[in-house]
Structures are given as C-alpha cells and as structure tokens.
Amino acid sequence: MLTSSHALWAYRSRPAGPLRRWLVIGAVAPDLPAFVGAAARLARGDRGRTALCNVYERGPWRPLLLGTHSMLGWTALVAATRQGSAGRALGAGALSHVAIDVVSHHEDAWAILWPLSDRRWRSPVSYWDHEHHARTWATVEVAALLVARRHTSSRAERWWIALCLAMAALPLVRARCGGAPVAL
Predict the structure, then answer these.
(1) Of 125, 85, 81, 83, which is closest to residue 102 (Cα–Cα)?
(2) Gap between the Cα atoms of 25 and 149, Å rounded
C-alpha cells in the first residue's frame, strides 16, 4: 500500500481529536526513513532504481528501515504507554502500517521480528509487482478509495482521497500501457 493510503485509512479510522494526528503520524512513520534517504540519495546524484536500491538494500538506511518495519519496537511502545495516550496512538498507527505491509509485499517483504529474526513472510500479493497481483490490489484499493470519497463531506479529505486515487491507480495504468512495475 502506498504511504499516502496508510495515512488516509488511519485518519478515517479514528474520530477527530488530538490522538488522530498521532495515529496518522504512526501510520507513515515506518516509511519516513525511506523518504529522507531517497532525498539524500537524489541530492548525491543517484537516479531511479539506483536511488531505491541504495536506500532499501544498502548503507545506513537498511537497518533503520528494518527497525521501523519491525513489530517489536512498536508493540513495546503500545505496551509501555497508557490507553488514550499519544504514544499508544503512534504505536498503533505504525502497527497498522506493518500489518498492511505484511499482506501487500512479496519481493520487498519486511522481517517483522527484526532484529530477533531476519525471516520474511512473502505475501502472495504485492501492491506494485504485476507478477504478484498488483492489478488486483490496485483495483481493490481504488474501489475502496472511491467508496471513501463518496462518503465524506470534507473538502480537504476529498482532495486527499483524490491524490491517493491517482497514485493507487498507477499500477492499473502501467499494466495497461505495458510499463515495468515501479515501487512507489
């Protein structure tokens, strides 16, 4: 699932209030090091796949991403904080991200018990890889976003959903145009 969709579904899962913000931040937190790393690699002149490989597979970014995509730290945060606290909402949002990644990543599956285990469960489904049902994933995600858009009256939320729709539809467009799959 795209990071923008992680944020949107976290936002929609909780009524307005101060904890909603922490839930949304948590839902994007596992991917934040990738954005910082990609910006750094692009600034150093890396492009395309080289930038992605240098962030996701090598160097200082790899262990940081393994840590943010592990359930262990986020579960400890939830367990150590009280009900109704910002820390618990942050941890719950991050755990929702990791759970969705478990069912939507195949080749790029995360070791969710890292550093205790490097074992990765490869989902039969990938949100971006056409060899592992990316079109089906994108179709379901787009349909869910269309339903969400229809059932909101907030103008800001409608724009957010429209942005998520455009990005979620890319695997459908690329599949039809014959483009190579690209992780977003």
Answers:
(1) 125
(2) 21
Domain boundaries, position 115? 3-177
Considering only CA atoms, give the Rg of the chain: 17
Lookup result for tokens 């089906």: 136
pLDDT digits 0-9 by tens, 71-90: 999 999 999 999 999 999 99
DSSP 131: G
pLDDT, tens digit, 9 for 90 and up, residues 116-155:
999 999 999 998 888 999 889 988 988 999 999 998 888 8
Helix (H) or strand (E) holding 9: helix 3-12
| CA dist., res. 152 & res. 45, Å (int) | 42
How far apart (Å, rounded) are the C-alpha atoms in residues 91 and 80? 10
3-state SS string for 134-166: HHHHHHHHHHHHHHHHHCCCCHHHHHHHHHHHH
Overall number of domains in the chain = 1
Report the predicted TM-score, pTM, of the whole model to 2 decimal places: 0.85
Tell me if 182 is assigned to some domain.
no
| Inside any domain, residue 50 | yes
For residue 65 the two structure tokens come to: 């991403």
Q: CA angle, 30 as apex, 94 and 137 as ends, to 5°? A: 85
- Looking at the domain assignment, is residue 184 inside a domain? no
Residues in the chain, overall count: 184
